[in-house]
Amino acid sequence: MKAVFLAHTAAPSGAELATLRLVAAMPPGHTAVIYTEDGPMVRRTQQRGIETRLVRNDFDSRAMTIQKAGLRSLLNGCAGLVRLGWALGATVRELEATVVVAGSTKALLMGAVAARRARVPLIWHVHDRISADYFGRWLAPALRLLGWLVARGSIANSRGTLASLYTWRRRALVAYPGVEFDTPEFADLAQGSAAITRAEQRPATETVVTVVGRLAPWKGQDHFLRALADVRILPREVFLVGGTFFDEESYRDELEVHATALDLPVTFTGHVEDPEPYLRHADILVHCSVLPEPFGQVVVEGMRAGCAVIATRPGGPEEIVDPGVNGLLVDAGDRAQLTRALDTLIADQELRAKLAEAARYRARDFDIAESARAVTDFLTLLPGTRWRRG
């Protein structure tokens, strides 16, 4: 089996990082990644020893967004993706692929053409809920139909994401975007111990709260700041960890204005390559998306690092967090609930410690090695796959 993963962007966002972890955990020599633009993910993938190709072109994927493009622009963009897909087909054949895995909706359209030219099956690896919340009322069903027509099957990052697809007479798999445990700091945790090296939970007035994620309106950082302003005991430090992509720089400016106006102890870190040190330093991790999160990788990362977690529902975090056992869940967009959850955890150091310990054990259920085995089996047993000897 030789699976070629297709990415339309090389920016280090959630889907691309999840794909890198997955491919790195799959059997060596049986995978490759093709990027259609240059960027940090190209180097990261190469550094992990993964076969990597960059197919240069003049198509600007960032210009083809739902917010910017009208129908005519979208159609022109789709035509550009089809042309690029034909060129990708030659690279797929050169790599001797037996299956193409498209990691986004744009990659799906490119991959349909590339897989057709290379005469191999196409699988859609879905990292977003294909719903009106994200894509609009007319585009969401069109994408579901496109995926059903051109892909032999789907790999979804959560049960909620899978439920947003058409899967009739198609193979489907839920493979969570797992976290890695094969590093020295997590070796004991992977073997059943929750004793990782980190600071103890701090007293109420000394608490540190962290929010990790791209600074984007649907991620809800403005909602978090307003909820934080109403807490009874203000944390000592608050970190907003994440950068901006896709022309969302103005949103960070708005957040900085809010933090200053509300007199909150907030530090904006910008994009960081590895948020793990911030998670190890934090007492509480807050996931505050105002739309249903497809999965919520940072929730698992925070649990693995030993944070007491607050996350929003509905969405992927409901498949991760058992409320009151290994974290707290609040309704997305409900500022009063978020404030109450923050008040509860900030004031109760013992509860934070209890939730954080349980969270470390829960994180083991999302070992990327398990997802990699499931995906490998799924792709290996795919009907119609063209095999190559050796």
Written overview of the protein:
It is built from 15 helices and 13 strands. Helix 10 links the parallel strand 9 and strand 10. A 7-stranded parallel β-sheet has the order 3-2-1-4-5-6-7, with helices on both faces. It is globular, with a radius of gyration of 21 Å.
Reconstruct the topology from this structure.
Blueprint: E1 3-7, H1 14-25, E2 31-35, H2 40-47, E3 51-54, H3 71-94, E4 99-102, H4 105-118, E5 122-126, H5 132-135, H6 139-150, E6 153-156, H7 159-163, E7 171-174, H8 187-190, E8 208-212, H9 221-228, E9 237-241, H10 249-261, E10 266-270, H11 276-281, E11 284-286, H12 297-305, E12 308-313, E13 328-331, H13 335-347, H14 349-363, H15 368-380
Parallel strand pairs: 1-2, 1-4, 2-3, 4-5, 5-6, 6-7, 8-9, 8-11, 9-10, 11-12, 12-13
- Strand residue content: 15-25%
Q: State the separation between the terminal residues, measured CA to CA.
A: 10 Å
- Percentage of helical residues? 40-55%
Arithmetic mean pLDDT: 90
Number of helices: 15
Tell me about the biggest sheet? 7 strands, parallel
Give the structural class: alpha/beta
Overall shape = globular
Radius of gyration, taken over Cα atoms and rounded to an integer in Å: 21 Å
- Give the total of beta strands: 13
The spatial strand order of the largest sheet comes to 3-2-1-4-5-6-7
* Helix and strand element order: EHEHEHEHEHHEHEHEHEHEHEHEEHHH
Low-confidence stretches: 386-390
